[in-house]
Amino acid sequence: MSPAIIILGTGALTTARRIQALYPSAQVYGLAERVAADISYSDFASQLRELYQSNRPVIALCAAGIVIRCLAPLLHSKGAEPPVLAVAEDGSAVVPLLGGLAGVNVLAREIAAALEVAPAITTSGELRFDTCVLNPPSGYVLGDIDQGKRFVSSLLGGETVRIEGAAPWLEQARLPLADDAHLRIRISTDANGSADELLIHPRSVVVLDPPADSQRIHASLAAAGISAHALACLLCPRERMTDNALHGTADSLGVPLRFSDEAALPFEHQRLESENLHLAIAAQPVAIHSLGQPRGRLTVVGLGPGASEFTAPAVKRALQEAEDVLGYETYVTMAGPFRPDQVLHNSDNREELARSRHAFELAASGRRVVVVSSGDPGVFAMAAAVLEALEASSDPHWHAVELHILPGISASLATAAKAGAPLGHDFCMISLSDNLKPWDVIELRLKHATLADLALAFYNPISRARPWQLGRALDVVREQRSPQTVVVLGRDIGRPAEALTVTTLGELRPEQVDMRTMVIIGSSTTRRFAKAGSEVDWVYTPRSYPGA
Ligand code: SAH
């Protein structure tokens, strides 16, 4: 996962960018109002905890003590532990703090080399042997951590060791090697080792089209004497992509699931069958990216009105995980910043169906795709277009995509909250755009909604191509509603140019409204009163209705 570099002020920015140059997908988090970085945060401790808990490697450019204090409450629950480092603002010290088994010392060495200082490594085994024996590189897994710790203690106590199997990363290490050593490091898929050996498993075993039953898989592996740590992935035909039990099985085994309809595997291997489980065993770790594809994922998200703090955490996570991001350019920009490895596909606002099809093409090929809308994706936005494209498609690969719709705060709700609670009683949302529906239908709906005394939220109220529609809509509403009716105009709500106006139906002029405006017309009961310290009144619609 890409590291998060977190800084408190401008003094650390130069060092942060030097570290970022080392890890181009890393993002610099800066304290809002103090420093403009890639992502801004308002509370250091909660930002740090959030990153730690999402298992991101953290490089904090501040005092080690601050980092320790912030993370201390989380440390006793020993779950996944990402690497955490403290780096001096001026780049003069690099201190690995946590995540010894997640490669913190490797990061510390890399960063220190780039900053031309010595890393403050304190791990005895690492210092003595120049490598962390218990932290093999990706593609390999340590068999048993407790046994590993005893093993390293014995080595530190003066024992010699020999290596059995291919361990290219240990060639550079300064281990006390001896051919007749009784301790050995063995690289093998074997499940069982002796007390004298440290087993490191290459992820070299592919399970072919297994049953969706992790216990059976465990039992069959055990019968074959193969460690579950040696599993590289489960490989299945594409028709099993929507088999939920299969996904559950892969999750509980902790291995990726890949799909391919090719009969041949793209690497040399031996076949083995154990209790009806079919295995392909390679001589080296398997590069799973060369093996078919994962199930693709398409997430349609709503960003909310604008400001990042009104975007749901689930949406932010989807954006972090995205490989491809599609949407109208303004919204894609709003959803950023993105890493250089993320592909942005900007398109015109009117190409919704084409954009949806493109999103499915990408997701069907195994990519993680996000389609962005402003506000809520299901309110006059991309979610319906995406579902329409899916329903019209007979391509089974499109239907096999994992599709999620994540909600956002819609413009009417964001505007209402700014003004008070004008939608506190029954209301209706209506788009005044006659691009996708006849104007007659709009007028009919306006008439009935007005007659029903609903508060009205107008989306797409006016545009250069639709200049007269708002005036006509107001004429319809004015036939039934008094000129004193309270009206709220919200322009660019949640964005820097935010403007809120409270007026009346009698005074409202279409010239006050543009396509970035939300128009809320109150019902007969909507009220306003002075807000202390503000020129704009509070507006609300009481919860109870006359006669109740
Ligand atoms: N999916 C969006 C709506 C898209 S239609 C949502 O749920 O909010 C676009 C219309 O929404 C605009 O013409 C405008 O009327 C309204 N709108 C969108 N963002 C807005 C904002 N930040 N402030 C005020 N109105 C906004």
UniProtKB/TrEMBL annotation:
Q: Which domain of life is it from?
A: Bacteria
Functional pathway: Cofactor biosynthesis; adenosylcobalamin biosynthesis
Q: Which GO terms describe its molecular function?
A: methyltransferase activity
One BP term from GO:
cobalamin biosynthetic process
Instruction: Write down a Pfam family by its short name.
Output: CbiG_N
Give the keywords, sorted. Answer: Cobalamin biosynthesis, Methyltransferase, S-adenosyl-L-methionine, Transferase
Domain Tetrapyrrole methylase: start-end pairs: 297-508
Q: Where does the record place the Cobalamin synthesis G N-terminal domain?
A: 48-125
Q: Any idea what this protein is called?
A: Precorrin-3 methylase CobJ
Originating organism? Pseudomonas turukhanskensis
